[in-house]
């Protein structure tokens, strides 16, 4: 049997958000009438999505192949960034960054169309939030999974560390200023400008590693906290369902 909460979430987040509250109440009332008060209580906790989050949810349903391509481009970019940080060829990072940006731009254009077709505002501020969310899911597996399901209720902040476009651009600019491997071998000593560029690249790489380590630490803490919260929520939902079932049996016995 399908999970009634997941089924309800799929239905609610697929529809325009202006009808979310009324649709949620109708589902909660139906579940309670069917004797599943526990599932109804869980559905009642589902939050109305922001406009930007709803647009991303629609993209996940309408453009799932492009969403998967974006996630893969994010993985490729992360691998290329790590390679550049230890002296690798920047071309791979440049190509991956260009591909991610191409996909994000195409998806944002689609989001604007989706919003207009639904009679909703496609203001620049909203589309910027869509863009930030798409950039985040390209480097965050947890975010990617929520977007894949199309049940995101709030837009995501743009990534920090690896995946931050400003840091990517600075790192690429620095390594591009460095001589190629062949030129490095041919030259006996680097010029002063080459030495400064190399030092700048090393500083940026070190900063990137520190930011990535901090982001990974925060992600671990968030996952641990979410795991505890999910376990508690499941236990509570189970207890509510059992209580509802017990009340039903008690009512039947009293008749």
Structural notes for this entry:
- Mean pLDDT is about 80; it is low at about 175-190.
- The protein has 2 domains: about 1-50, no CATH class; about 50-180 and about 185-225, no CATH class.
- Helix content is about 80%, strand content about 0%.
- The protein starts with a helix and ends with a helix.
- α1 (about 5-15) packs parallel to α3, α6 (about 90-115) crosses α7 and α6 (about 90-115) runs antiparallel to α9.
- The protein is mainly α and about 260 residues long.
In short:
This protein has 255 residues and is mainly alpha-helical. It contains eleven helices and no strands.
How many strand units? 0
Q: Order of helices and strands, N to C? A: HHHHHHHHHHH
- The span between the termini is 30 Å
The count of domains is 2
Low-confidence stretches: 174-188
Shape: elongated
Distinct helical segment count = 11
Rg, rounded, reads: 24 Å
Mean pLDDT: 80
Which structural class best describes the helix and strand composition?
mainly alpha
The portion of residues assigned to helices is over 70%
**Strand portion:** under 5%
Largest sheet, strands/sense/barrel: none
């Amino acid at each position: 049997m399908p999970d009634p909460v997941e089924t309800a979430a799929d239905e609610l987040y697929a529809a325009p958000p202006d009808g979310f509250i009324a649709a949620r109440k109708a589902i909660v009332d139906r579940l309670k009438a069917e004797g599943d008060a526990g599932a109804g209580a869980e559905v009642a906790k589902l939050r109305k999505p922001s406009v930007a989050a709803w647009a991303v949810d629609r993209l996940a349903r309408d453009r799932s192949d492009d969403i998967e391509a974006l996630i893969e481009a994010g993985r490729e970019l992360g691998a290329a960034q790590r390679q550049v940080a230890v002296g690798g060829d920047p071309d791979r990072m440049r190509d991956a960054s260009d591909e991610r940006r191409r996909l994000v731009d195409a998806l944002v254009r689609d989001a604007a169309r989706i919003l207009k077709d639904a009679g909703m505002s496609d203001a620049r501020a909203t589309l910027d939030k869509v863009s930030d969310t798409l950039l985040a899911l390209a480097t965050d597996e947890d975010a990617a999974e929520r977007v894949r399901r199309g049940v995101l209720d709030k837009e995501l902040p743009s990534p920090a560390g690896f995946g931050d476009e400003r840091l990517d651009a600075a790192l690429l600019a620095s390594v591009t200023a460095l001589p190629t491997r062949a030129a490095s071998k041919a030259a006996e000593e680097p010029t002063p400008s080459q030495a400064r560029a190399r030092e700048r690249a090393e500083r940026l790489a070190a900063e990137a590693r520190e930011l990535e380590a901090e982001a990974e630490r925060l992600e671990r803490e968030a996952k641990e906290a979410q795991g505890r919260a999910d376990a508690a929520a499941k236990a509570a939902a189970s207890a509510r369902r059992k209580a509802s079932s017990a009340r039903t049996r008690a009512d039947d016995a009293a008749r």
